[in-house]
Amino acid sequence: MITRSLKRITSVWIITVLVLFVTAIIFGITMRFNQGKDLTMSPVGFYSLMTTHGITMIGIWAAAGLVAVNYLLGRYVKVSVSLNVFAFVTTVIGVLMIWATTFIGKYHAGWTFLYPLPLQVAWAKWATPVFLFGLGILGAGWLIWSVGMLLQILSKYSLKQAFAWQHFSKNPAVETPPLVLISTVSLIGIIVSLLTAVILLVLYFLEYFSGGNFTNDPLLMKNLTYFFGHTIANESLYLGLAAVYELMPESSGRPRFKTTWYVALAWNCTLVFILTAFFHHLYMDFVQPVGFQMIGQLASYFASLPAAAVTAFSVIALVYRGRIRWSLTNTLFFIGIMGWLIGGIGAVIDATVSNNMILHNTLWVPAHFHTYNAMGNVLFCLAFFNWVAHEFAGTQASVKSFRLTTVLLLIGGFGFVLMFYLGGAYSMPRRFSVYPQEFTHAAILASLGAWFATVYLVAIVLIFANIIKKCLKVFSPSFSS
Amino acid sequence: MLSGIAWSAPEDYNFSEESKLYTKIADIKLNTTRGEVMLSDLYVKSPVILTLIFTRCVGICSPFLNSLSEDMDNLNAKENYKVLVISFDPLDEVSDMERMAKRYEREDDPQWVFAVTDNIAELNESIGFYPVWDSTRQQYDHDALLVGINENGYIVRKLTGIRGPDALMGVIREINNEFVLSYPLPRENMIFSCFTYDPATGKKKPSLGLLILVLPGILTLLMIALLSLKKQQQSVGNG
Ligand code: HEM
């Protein structure tokens, strides 16, 4: 059941996520202008900002997915508001600690904090343990929250039903809603990735406090880092997709999506393959056994293709020749699916070993992950925010007034990522605060990217303004649930 | 107690190829067979492969220099570099080094430089090279060491022992700023490596690290199994 307190905490999450999002976009634009030589930052300033931007973005969109799924699960199972509030508190503490390390302590090892960087202290000494502790607190909160949600699903559906296995036989007695299936698959992935983070942090602390008596194996640490980082970033996207399956037909005035045998099969495959796809981050690690490299390439294909194929098929079936009532909610879902597919193709190209030899650590990498984040998952979550805000306000999503926002979003968003793609295609390296002179067009592409991102920011602010007023309504004394 | 003595024995020398890596080598004055120079005068012009020997050595120095000299001829590498042979024995003089250069027919080879120095302790410290004087044998206990120094004076690669042309080529490429694959060797205090290498059989075996990698998956599976088992028991109880 969706209670008033669930609505209130959801509202608090939405406002927090949007404030942090706008701030992190400004950080991103600042970095791109610096790469474009339109302004000058010190390298330390740039990398501190890059670390803050990366970790904030990954964090808020993973949280937004959990918030959406938690809210929507309330339609099918009893959900815990106290766990939700607990996760919010740990998130705020974690974010404050992490921001303190990057802004005050000048910690700048990147959001992936790849071994051994955090231990090669080039910033305030306290920043390394505080950064790792901050991550630990944040991760622990989410881990408990995710386990709680899974428990709530399993308290109504059996394990087989949660995975929708009954749909492999004819006329199943119980239907597993797509939201429940996708949430189960994604929550399991999130739990695995957060447990990996716990192990990773323990290993870091062991080395940090051992005074040289314990050293980590760099290969193990890199595997663990990407097992955590890649998996959580990907599962966040799938949480967003759960909201697409639940709300896109509803917000378009069409019959809801049903779980069929192929939907069930696709999402079960996704669970297996998503957990092994991270090996594609280690193609350049010659000490990694070749077998793992092969698994990395195959899993990258199989993790993305089945889910992408059934989702694209379902959405095209929904939109094609149907009488759709377009609103900001389903428009954002639709553009988000496009962004997800385009970014996904970019990712599969990069995950193919022969291409990776050329594209590894070039701007192609931020190109594809910004596409399926900024123009994919972010839009799924914003669509949910917009839909839920209207629910809070008891209003209907307007059909016309979002045209300007959509145009700005499309031009700004795709223009911004296009500049990254062009940079990647010309082998320009990622994570450079300023580009070497040899890359004659890098600065101009960066500058253009920053301007496009500014247009994207305007669209986001317009959406934010529209949502925030409605979200605040849940706190008015006259609000009835 | 015994192990404590064994661990802290002063005769221990450090064979690590990673100590002092990516740190700057001491810029000392050298007395070469062709006159006085600073070490930096050499490496700014071309990167340097440095080896430390002593002329009275009855052990590793001769076979080591022999193999180095042969490998250099066989490789005939086109890259830009100099080979610098320095004596770490304070008793050695420039004339001893001249004799040594002649023995390897390198006295007129501009690529080879033979030298002694008054600042050997400073040089040794900056490299992490610690020869130990054995008064019974009247010899130094020391390892055969090659140090790759790039044109900025940084130690970018160290090789211990007589290692053959492939490893040598790696050093030459590395000091010329080419990317050369390398990985730290497993150490005693690295208990969680993914694989262990058995030098006797030459085989790699899966190790504890791999178990750690699959641990999150196993823990999650166990948790889900427990949760659904509990639920089954509850529904049997209720039914
Ligand atoms: C329009 C909005 C955004 C702008 C202007 C922006 C800008 C940037 C820039 C300039 C970089 C550094 C690229 C490089 O040279 O390697 C970067 C990295 C990154 N961005 Fe964004 N970004 C935006 C949105 C997002 C979103 C929505 C996410 C969501 C997850 C995100 C996640 C990241 C991550 C994870 C990194 C990598 C940080 C690292 O390498 O440690 N960004 N972004």
Task: Give an account of the 3D structure.
The complex is a heterodimer of chains A (481) and B (239). Chain A is 72% helix and 0% strand. Chain A is an all-alpha fold and 481 residues long. Chain A has one domain (4-475): Cytochrome c oxidase-like, subunit I domain (Cytochrome C Oxidase, Chain A), CATH 1.20.210. In chain A, α7 (218-251) crosses α12 (364-393). With 239 residues, chain B is α+β, with helices and mostly antiparallel strands. Chain B has a single domain (3-175), classed as Glutaredoxin, CATH 3.40.30.10. In chain B, α3 (61-75) packs across α6. The longest helix of chain B has 31 residues, at 208-238. Chain B is elongated and about 100 Å long. The interface between A and B is medium-sized, with 32 and 26 residues. The structure holds protoporphyrin IX containing FE. Residues 25, 28-29, 31-32, 50-51, 53-54, 57-58, 61, 110-112, 366, 370, 373-374, 378, 416, 430-431, 453, 456 of chain A line the site of protoporphyrin IX containing FE (HEM).
Write the layout of secondary structure elements.
The complex is a heterodimer of chains A (481) and B (239).
Chain A lengths: L3 H32 L7 H31 L7 H24 L22 H30 L2 H4 L15 H32 L8 H34 L9 H14 L15 H30 L8 H23 L2 H7 L4 H30 L9 H23 L16 H31 L9
Helix pairs in contact in A: 1-2, 1-3, 1-14, 2-3, 2-4, 2-7, 2-12, 3-4, 4-6, 6-7, 6-8, 7-10, 7-12, 8-9, 9-10, 10-12, 12-13, 12-14, 13-14
Chain B lengths: L1 H6 L21 E4 L2 E4 H7 L2 E6 L7 H15 L6 E6 L6 H10 L8 E5 L3 H8 L4 E3 L4 E3 L3 E5 L5 E6 L3 H12 L19 E4 L4 E4 L1 H31 L1
Parallel strand pairs in B: 3-4, 4-5
Antiparallel strand pairs in B: 1-2, 1-5, 3-8, 6-7, 8-9, 10-11
Helix pairs in contact in B: 3-6
Bound molecules: protoporphyrin IX containing FE.
